[in-house]
Design goal:
17 helices, single chain, mainly alpha, 463 residues, DUF3526, 69% helix, two-stranded antiparallel ribbon, membrane
Length: 463
């Protein structure tokens, strides 16, 4: 234990390590603060929208009787809010680039829910500043800078030969790596617990899963550092090798993953659906209204007993055309959501950074899959609203003031995504790295032993 304590004191006395640790801590605190402020603003805005829409809905209690269900469906907005999970304060994921608070009328749903800003997917590769960004991108750099040069530094100062004579060099390296691993893990764990208190995170299994993901991801990068140390290079070469691995995992492979997604996913197809739906609806004003209405009734025979169209404008025809224009882009919506769920790119499995980010986003309900589930639930809820209003429109059902409270309300709760695959993936990488390191150590040890036995390496191989 004395050696462990001495090595720990030696590490903490290193000025460069202290500065790196302080900078990393500041970045983590800043990320948590920014993420929590974003979460609070999102949550407050969602609650304010629901409160405002509830007041408007109550105001229509008697207006519907006077103005009719057609006017109510046109002017009454209802909220469709994807409430943020408290975990989104730490792992924002793709949530900020999507619409999660919408006001939806009885008009065509695809003409309303895809009106967000056009996204550039290449700018969404890294994401916003949050704790997930610090862990995924900056934690490996911290590990490399404090771990891959201490053997080279000892060689440069002439201490390594003496240390090899006094102690087992392999045990010394492992001890130093474990001390660094424990120190970094303690720093990350302390801030995770503090963030859990600040963001009022529930003390549940999810917290333990996040911590376990952190441990495995950190262990993987320490394995990479150990493999770099085995190369026996000088400090500059060791840092270059480690940074090359970091660039490969953090930048190059994610870029290839994004390019692969661009080939299969139309990121801005929502705008295309919006335009096509509205164009079809606008064209219907110039077509034969009765013919279009008859086609609608043939598609939906449950409304076939409705009374004939009367006058130049009829609410029944209007909402029938809204529904028909929605139907014409439904196949695009299904293709769009299926493409948005596509995360099976083989490039993703080559980057532990991408795998970690995906797992954290799934836990925080901020992934692309969660956004797709929200859109699908929104479309299903819109159909429920149509099922509520259409009897008043097509069957002339009388509307009572209390019926306003029976309008279906939007409620969405994302499903919990399994993380066992990610945990197994990271554990497998650690196992492979450990196996490679062991084989490399045995090979180096054999290479040192053969000359002592008076055996030429080439001769032994040939034998």
């Amino acid at each position: 234990m004395k050696l462990w304590w001495l090595e720990t004191r030696l590490l903490l006395k290193n000025r460069a390590v202290r500065w790196l640790g302080a900078a990393y801590l500041v970045m983590m605190m800043l990320a948590v603060g920014v993420g929590y402020a974003r979460f609070q603003g999102d949550d407050v805005a969602g609650e304010a929208l629901k409160t405002r829409m509830a007041a408007e809905q109550a105001a229509w209690r008697h207006k519907v009787v006077a103005q009719g269900p057609g006017s109510a469906g046109y002017y009454l907005f209802l909220p469709a809010v994807f409430a943020p999970s408290p975990w989104s304060a730490l792992f924002g994921g793709e949530r900020a680039s999507h619409l999660t608070q919408q006001r939806v009328r009885l008009l065509a749903v695809h003409g309303q829910i895809h009106g967000g800003p056009i996204r550039n997917p290449e700018l969404a590769v890294i994401g916003d500043l949050d704790l997930g960004f610090v862990w995924a991108y900056l934690l490996p750099l911290l590990i490399g800078l404090i771990s891959v040069t201490f053997v080279a530094d000892d060689r440069r100062r002439g201490r390594w030969s003496m240390l090899q004579a006094l102690t087992d060099p392999v045990g010394l390296v492992l001890r130093r790596l474990l001390i660094r691993f424990g120190s970094v893990l303690l720093l990350n764990s302390a801030l995770l617990v503090a963030a859990a208190f600040v963001a009022a995170l529930p003390w549940e299994t999810r917290l333990g899963v996040v911590w376990l993901l952190l441990v495995l991801y950190q262990a993987f990068w320490f394995c990479v550092a150990a493999l770099v140390l085995q190369l026996g290079r000088n400090a500059h070469q060791s840092i270059l090798v480690y940074v090359a691995v970091w660039v490969l995992s953090v930048w190059l492979v994610p870029a290839l993953h994004t390019m692969s997604k661009l080939e299969t996913e139309h990121f801005n197809q929502g705008v295309e659906m919006l335009v096509l739906q509205r164009q079809d609806m606008n064209d219907s004003w110039d077509r034969d209204k009765q013919a279009d209405f008859d086609a609608f009734l043939a598609t939906y025979p449950q409304w076939a007993e409705t009374s004939p169209l009367v006058g130049r404008f009829n609410w029944k025809w209007y909402y029938a055309m809204q529904k028909a224009s929605d139907d014409k882009v439904n196949h695009l919506f299904e293709a769009y959501t299926a493409a948005r769920e596509h995360t099976g790119s083989p490039w993703r499995l080559l980057s532990p950074t991408l795998v970690l980010q995906g797992a954290l986003e799934d836990l925080a309900d901020t992934s692309a899959r969660d956004q797709v589930a929200y859109l699908r639930e929104l479309v299903a809820w819109h159909r429920e609203k149509q099922a509520f209003w259409f009897p008043y429109l097509f069957n002339d059902k009388p509307f009572a003031p209390d019926d306003i409270n029976r309008i279906p309300a939007f409620a969405f709760q994302p499903d919990d995504a399994p993380t066992t695959g990610t945990l197994g993936y990271l554990a497998g990488l650690i196992l492979v790295a450990g196996l490679v390191g062991t084989l490399q150590h045995l090979r180096a040890r054999r290479a040192r032993t053969l000359p002592k036995l008076g055996i030429q390496r080439d001769a032994s191989v040939g034998a």
